[in-house]
Amino acid sequence: MTNAVLTGLVLGGMYALIAMGLTLQYGVARIMNLSYGEFLIGAAFASYWLFTGWALNPLAGLAFVIPVSFGISYLLYRVLLTPLVRRARTRDALEVDSILATFGMMFIVQGIMLTMFGGAYFSYSFLAVPVTIVGEVLALNRLIAFGLAVVVGLALYLTLTRTRIGTSIRAVAVDPIAAQLVAIDVTRTSALAFALGGALVASAGVLISMFLTFSATSGVVFTMKALIVVVMGGVGNLLGCLVAGLALGLSEALVATFIDPGLTLAVNFALFLGVLLVKPAGIFGRAQR
Amino acid sequence: MSSTQITTGAICLAAVVALAFAPMIVDAYHLALAISLLQFTVLATAWGMFSGPTRYVSLATTAFFGVGAYTVAVLGEQLPWSLVLLIAAAIGAVMAVIVGLSTLRLSGVHFVIFTFGLAELVRQIVVWYEVNMTRVLGRYVFVDITQNDIYWQLLTLAVIVFGTGWLIARSRFGFALRIIGEDETVARHCGINVTIAKVALFTITATFMTLVGAIMAPRFTYIEPSIAFNATISFEVVIMALLGGAHRLWGPALGAIPLTLLFDFLSARFPSTSTLIMGVVFLLIVYALPSGVVGLWEKLKAWRPTASKMRGAQA
Q1: Residue B102 predicted with pLDDT over 60
Q2: Does residue B197 belong to any structural domain of this protein?
Q3: Please, which residues have CB within 8 angstroms of residue A114's CB and are 6 or more apart in sequence?
Q4: Position B284 in a domain
Q5: Can you give the residue range of the structural domain that contains B209?
Q6: CB-based contact (8 Å) between B238 and chain A?
Q7: Which CATH number fits domain A2-278: 1.10.8, 3.90.79, 1.10.3470, 1.20.272?
């Protein structure tokens, strides 16, 4: 029982971290990114490549992966997605367009990874040392990943609430049109938020690659879970991400331990529907329109 | 009925009759190709029938396709063929009603997320059931269905799909759907029960997709969850319908034909990079042809003098 709860907490912390990036991309930049998980797997492969090819510690690899993915996501928004934002007349139209564009992107990124690495599963052994916590044994790499997820999440929270740029990001999330009235460059702020989301998911990818096996096609599952957490917690809400992420992780671990590991996705969806039937805007979401 | 409509009807009828005789003439390779063409035409048209008017992007085609195929794999040997098809259609319809009722009441995002995961969810449940209850993973389909039978069944289904689409478009139901597509709030104020209309349409189209899966199942011979619930099908169907233009009944078919041929060629010639190329084609269509070939055609028509414009409005 304790072990299941601990595993669930670590897993939930990762889900919350992944979802925070998506909530920035969807809540602020208004891009429903279906290729999100592909960028997570991309970062996992980068970390794998750095670790096996260059013997670079994944934690040191973060210093390389995060800026690169920030840059890639920024360019992606500027080059591919800004035309869609300009073309869209309403928010709903942008949503449909961004779903379609990122759906295509998902296959492109997946295709690139498939040609480079093939369809096999990859993993590497880093800090797989047992540690005892409250009488239960956990691997050190999981604990470090969890700790770093907490640090990154906290840093993001403080940036958004304590700094000037964070405040303008939140302003765009609330109302992109009114934000212009207080001299916020909405396009730039959106691009920044999108890139920040890309950097977050890349860091999550590196952390996850330390303790999970992954393949070129396993990104879809992460996209799905991130979407579920974001919508369940309330779009654009970091606290919602945390609560919903932990709930998802815990329920998954408990079901895997006590019922069947093959039913985790079913639990995710049951939880998702259950929450939305009671609160359609998500746990912390405000009703719109 | 005007004379143009009668001519169009006669041409369609002649085309169907001509297509029905195709298996007698062509060789095995071209018959297989014709089956793929029909399969994707039906799937893309059914997709467009729902997503065109409602503007909800459904990514769950393969979930229904897979359920149909799997039903045949489980029941195909025990029951007569027509009964198997009926049961498959019923299962697909029930699943669509459940998915529709639980997500279509909410906003479009929930629907997209749910359909995005639906195939994976159903696949996981099927695997879990097979591993724990029946203890077999992967089944052989031994039914007495030839390639010709598959072709004729698909052709019949295609005729039914187009007929249904045509009937819906000229009924009160179709009118209500067009209003919903334009503005949901207005539709609600007109007294249209938006949820029921959307769920009904989703169920009808999903049933067609399930039937395609069921009809195609004998072609696989061996079925396991990862084959039946192949995500590529959802992807291909969306891109075909978009290329053609989902806002017209016959639009998706225009996209299905060239792209089926293209993908067939790609998977034979560049098996390792076909995913990548398909993604690029998809993006090109989203950016360059947002309303498909049909949309482009209508735009070109709008430039020409008024006489042709009026015909365009009538059609």
Answers
A1: yes
A2: yes
A3: A216, A217, B272, B275, B276
A4: no
A5: 3-230
A6: yes
A7: 1.10.3470
Residue B242: which of A95, A100, A227 has the nearest Cβ? Answer: A100
User: What's the structural domain count of chain B?
Assistant: 1
Q: Is B137 on the interface with A (CB under 8 A)?
A: no
pLDDT tens for residues A27-57? 888 888 888 989 999 999 988 888 888 878 8
The tally of CA atoms less than 13 A away on the side-chain side of residue B93 is 12
CA-CA distance, A169 to A172, in Å (whole number)? 5
ipTM of the complex: 0.78
Q: Let me know how long chain B is.
A: 315
A104/B275 CB distance under 8 A = no
Domain ranges of chain A: 2-278
Of B108, B114, B238, the CB nearest to A92: B108
Q: List the structure tokens of B74.
A: 């489980």
> What is the distance, to the nearest Å, from the Cα of residue B223 to the centroid of all Cα atoms in its chain?
21
Cβ A97–B290 below 8 Å, yes or no? yes
Q: Which residues of A touch B125 (CB under 8 A)?
A: 263, 266
pLDDT digits (tens, 9 = 90+) for A170-184: 888 888 888 888 888
Chain A residues inside the 8 Å CB shell of B230: none
Nearest Cβ partner for B117 among A111, A224, A276 = A224
Return the pLDDT at B23: 77
**Cβ–Cβ of B279/A105 closer than 8 Å?**
yes
Domain for residue B168, yes or no?
yes
Assigned domain for B7 exists: yes
Helix orientation angle between B194-220 and B81-103, rounded to the nearest 10 degrees: 140
Q: How many CB atoms lie within 10 A of CB B136?
A: 9
d(CA B108, CA B110): 6
- Residue A285 has what DSSP assignment? P
Does any CB of chain A come closer than 8 Å to the CB of residue B134? Answer: no
